[in-house]
Amino acid sequence: MHAPQGPDSTRQDQSWVHWAIGRIEADYARSSDTHLLAVPLPALAHIALYLKDESSHPTGSLKHRLARSLFLHALCSGWIGPDTTVVEASSGSTAVSEAYFARMLGLPFIAVIPEHTAREKIAAIEALGGACHAVADPGSVQSVAARIAAECGGHHIDQFTYAERATDWRGNNNIAESIFAQMRREPHPVPTWIVCGAGTGGTSATIGRYLRYFRHPTRLCLADPEASAFHRHWHDRAVAAGSGEPCLIEGIGRPRIEASFVPTVIDRAEVVGDAASIGAARALSRHLGRRVGGSTGTNLVACARIAAEMAARGEAGAIVSILCDSGERYASTLYNDAWLAERGLDCSAHEARMAHFLAAGTWSE
User: Fold this and answer.
1) Prediction pTM value
2) Which residue, among 154, 25, 36, 156, has the nearest Cα to 88 in the 3D structure?
3) Same domain, 91 and 47
């Protein structure tokens, strides 16, 4: 929902909108690009693996790019003014980033989150001045956010609808442009594969469109949680819902198809169970010497499968994926053995399998 704007209020707010856009652009100018990490694979001499480290953004995740784009899109569309309450439906990271930009502009912010959201994310939202409204049914977050925005005369910024259109996929330092710029001096400057998950679908849409626009041969792989609707819809467009089971990997995978998901730009979909994602994240954390989030583990499993196939065919090339956020946000969940045990998850075999891949270069399910 968009806050009502008449001609007079629009004119009065114009100078504030100019100021707000300038604030966001100034913040961007103070930030450097995120690192592209080379992941050591000593047994795969001809295959290079890279992770785009989005945890180094000011708000600690890939969603910082999205939040900036969503705020600029809403400001330039006339949907946000100096007194607008901004409301979002989020599993946590997008809300953290949006709370950052809302505070920058002096706007109230309300995050509608699933009640199982990691408490570290809730604390981050609140530390940035946002309020959290938890709901029991994760599938209801969008409708609840829209209702709250309507009740307070605010704006539902709606990442699930606007993610794919708020980002300029032709360039303007989107994540795809940044990856290709950073790969220029690498042995394989044009990646064979880029692997990413989908929460809204905005990142996969941006990368897929960029690849086509610049006519790169790089293929795009979707790494998707088992319960998610996205991989099901990619295989069969008539399917619009997930399995109905809960997904423990925050930030990616959805129980339904979202408006920003564009299946036609995706070349391959890899389905990854929650235990495999968590085990992979833990193994990679030891390999890098720092904790990574669960969605990075999901990406890594898909990368391992692709790398093993390339090696078996004698192919050389590069695979690029995304380190979405830090594992410190999941200290009480994915890195808490008691939390996993309560949910009947034993990730040890998956963790050992990924550790073996990182060391020996072989993969078996």
Assistant:
1) 0.91
2) 156
3) no
